[in-house]
């Protein structure tokens, strides 16, 4: 890269004309700790998560260094860090909500509110709901969910448009959800259980 003009900084900005590795490293060392402290204070995150977020923001700045003017680097980092922290908080809230739902389901099952269901019975219910789907809709559903084909591959195999496949899958999923509504929570818990292992 081109050499930078003289580096000088005040409390808010670190000004260079063009980034090079030395000026970027100096900027990183000067700003990293204060950005971590600010992020941790503002968003009440753990220190490790905060460091990860700030470090990722610096990586993004380095990757976009040709597009982000050095005089706007601090503002860019603050924006990226804020967005990443909010995303992290939202993701954490979703995980916590899901954990409460799964825990609540397990507690309800322990309390006897859910009948114990045999895997064969559940399988029969799924097969019954599947057999009730109209012909082409059932074929599309089976090719997608059981054989793992893409919508494009299904469309080619059945000589129909991808849009028709999408419509048929949407309708099939709606019908399956309706038919298996009593078992949806159990199915979701089972699917999640198997994804942990």
From TrEMBL:
* HTH luxR-type domain sequence ranges: 148-175
Q: Does the keyword Transcription apply?
A: yes
- Does Transcription regulation appear among the keywords? yes
What GO biological process terms does the UniProt entry carry, in alphabetical order? Answer: DNA-templated transcription initiation
- Gene Ontology terms for molecular function: DNA binding; sigma factor activity
InterPro entries per the UniProt record, alphabetical: RNA_pol_sigma-70-like (IPR039425), RNA_pol_sigma-70_dom (IPR014284), RNA_pol_sigma70_r4_t2 (IPR013249), RNA_pol_sigma_r2 (IPR013325), RNA_pol_sigma_r3/r4-like (IPR013324), Tscrpt_reg_LuxR_C (IPR000792), WH-like_DNA-bd_sf (IPR036388)
Q: Which SUPFAM superfamilies match?
A: Sigma2 domain of RNA polymerase sigma factors, Sigma3 and sigma4 domains of RNA polymerase sigma factors
Keywords recorded for this protein, A-Z: Sigma factor, Transcription, Transcription regulation
Please, which domain of life does this record's source organism belong to?
Bacteria
The UniProt family comment states: Belongs to the sigma-70 factor family. ECF subfamily.
Question: What is the designated name of this protein?
Answer: RNA polymerase sigma-70 factor, ECF subfamily
